[in-house]
Design brief:
Blueprint lengths: L28 H4 L1 E2 L3 E2 L2 E2 L6 H29 L4 H36 L13 E2 L13 E6 L4 E13 L2 E12 L2 E13 L4 E12 L2 E4 L4 E2 L6 E6 L8 E3 L1 E2 L7 E13 L2 E13 L2 E11 L3 E7 L5 E9 L2
Antiparallel strand pairs: 1-2, 2-3, 4-8, 5-6, 5-19, 6-7, 7-8, 8-9, 9-10, 9-11, 9-12, 12-14, 13-15, 15-16, 16-17, 17-18, 18-19
Helix pairs in contact: 2-3
Length: 327
Amino acid sequence: MKLPSLQNGSRIAGSRSQCKSGRWLAPAILAAGIVLGFGIGGTTATAGSDPCKRTTKVAAKACGEGAKSDYNLALGKCANIADPVARKACQIQAKADLKDAIDTCQAQTDARLAVCARLGGATYEPSIVPANFVGTISNSFLPFVPGTTLVYVSPSESNVLFVTHNTKVILGVTCVEVHDNVYRGGVLTEDTLDWYAQDKDGNVWYFGENTHELDGNEITSIDGSFKGGVNGAEPGIIMKAHPMVGDFYRQEFDLDNAEDVAEVVSLTNTVTVASGTYTNCLKTLETSPLEPDAMENKYYASGVGNVLVVDLVTGERLELISVTIGP
């Protein structure tokens, strides 16, 4: 989990409730409005020489083709039901799943195109030169000092973030490893390692994560896990060196797995949470094309880091309650 986050009890980052390659899109794809290989519904992802739109077009095609495959599988399962009433109910449910999934697929495509419009049509291939990175993270809005523990609480979960003394080399860059645990009802439900590094200009980059969603002792999902440089995944900036209102940037990029973007919306907020009152906070708006309906405001205090996350859909607040610095 790259920084505390509230979204369906999970993170936005590569977030977990996305439609994975058209999963559960169900029946009669063309009749339902997906134009395979070009767009979704009323959206036309005209690519031309625009790599960003071409990426969107391919993602739309993958969503449709995956939908068709999943629908055929669903029909097979329905056909294996002997009772005609139950079999019919299975088919009806498949159609309902189709409608929901097509809506999601449409929204994902629209969201990707909106990101393209703001960032331009160029490829996203940040230049990562190991010599341009430093060994510590001292950005005032995200000071990840090894040995620091930050604890966050909301009505539905608690989140413990520990900046470890461990490092991981990704794309030749030595990254700081942050251990992030999410608990619901006192039970560990997410266990994640995140990797960050700061460049010489002071920008903090997010190089990837290894995340496990848990049900008891069982791993139920690793969705959202990625590592920069592996299978087309690219790192992104999690915190700018000199943020300004209107800044819009990718925090990560792994198509159909991790596509968070952020915008700086204020530098002057005052925030009161359980751990205290903080002034002149940086406020961001975080979204992801993978979860088009999800929106979060995050607030960062100088010298502390993230102090508050507000889910703009539910209104739920994840507040910093304590910061401790150990050995």
